[in-house]
Amino acid sequence: MNFEFFIAKRIIGAKSYKSSISATIIKIAILAIALGLIMMLIAIATGLGLQNKIREKVAAFNGHIQISTYDNNNSQVSINPIARDQDFYPKFKDIEGIAHVQAIANKGGVIRTEETFEGIVLKGVGSDYDWNHMKEFLREGRLPNFSGKLNAEVMISSYMANRLLISVGDKVNAFFPKEDPEKLPNQLRLEVVGIYDSGFKDFDETYVFGDIRQVQRMNRWEEDQIGSFEVFLEDFDSLEEKGAEIYLKTLSTLDAQTISDKYYHIFEWVKLFDYNVAIIIAVMILVGGINMITALLVLILEKTQMIGILKAMGSSNASIRKIFLYNASYLIAIGLFWGNLIGLGAIWLQGKYNFLKFPNPEQYYVTDIPVHITIWHVLFLNVGVLFLCILMLLLPSYIISRIAPSKAIRFA
């Protein structure tokens, strides 16, 4: 055990140290570190949780990457069909990290009841559709089943169900225009078998999930013609990389568009969360560091006699500074321990029970406040706080070099 660590340990363990005039200031400094870490952990967890949840919701309705024809169509409706028989369907063979590929076709129309009507986009899906992304949004009824014969089962949003005054089991009339506007529109008698609620109003007020064969029939497409492909990735962080790879691997007549490009405004807004979290972390570290500087200065003033004696015995200024920096590191570690215990505990409870909710969920697209944090975030945050706080303490620790042994001992 080195000399500086030994002296710091004796100071920490001394009863007089715990009952000294600096005890209250030290407790405040520890509390500041703990509260700061709690705030930083919660900021990171909620920021990442909200980012992930919004990304998941956008991907659930669109996939991570959409493959469609090149055209000037900026709507959600499928106009020009593409062949289902592609080298990458039903699975990419040359690109790793692709979780699933599914075929869809969209058709714009109107649902009409005796009381009111609503414009919709009928999202036609088939037996290859992965419902796992939509299961968590299901609120009533069941998911449609399109593995058998052509049917009229649909799943609508709770937003639309409330506006149309319909529920699970009801049958409604839907009208879809033909290419020739002078002809009567196609009419379908749809049966509501499920109601979903994603909290994403942009999608909830638009999409009705139905059988892709209904869209093919109304558009007079062949069985092997679909509107577009939705590609799901195993890792969202590889979105741009995989998007470029898929673009190069598909036919020149097809376009591959990532959801970050298609919904640019949403993902740019999501990126702002990182900036907000960085501001919170910077402010909390600054507040905690200032409190530790105050505690260190009080400790130095309180131990002036000891400093004078150590200098008289031959200890260097650097050696004595180490003693107080060891002491400060111990206090920071206590604050980090309690901060981690309380912060991670609160995050775990929120993740399990979702007791905290947004007062205005329509602005954040989620009702419950989502949380997500990894062990690496916790480790980097703790190491970063410890390092930066000690770095901030280096400058005030140089006050030790200004303490003269003769005056310090005589003062005592």
From TrEMBL:
Membrane topology note: Multi-pass membrane protein
Transmembrane segments: 21-45, 277-302, 323-349, 369-395
Keyword tags: Cell membrane, Membrane, Transmembrane, Transmembrane helix
Record localization: Cell membrane
Main location: membrane
Residue intervals of the ABC3 transporter permease C-terminal domain: 279-405
Domain MacB-like periplasmic core: 28-241
Similarity comment: Belongs to the ABC-4 integral membrane protein family. LolC/E subfamily.
The protein's name: ABC transporter permease
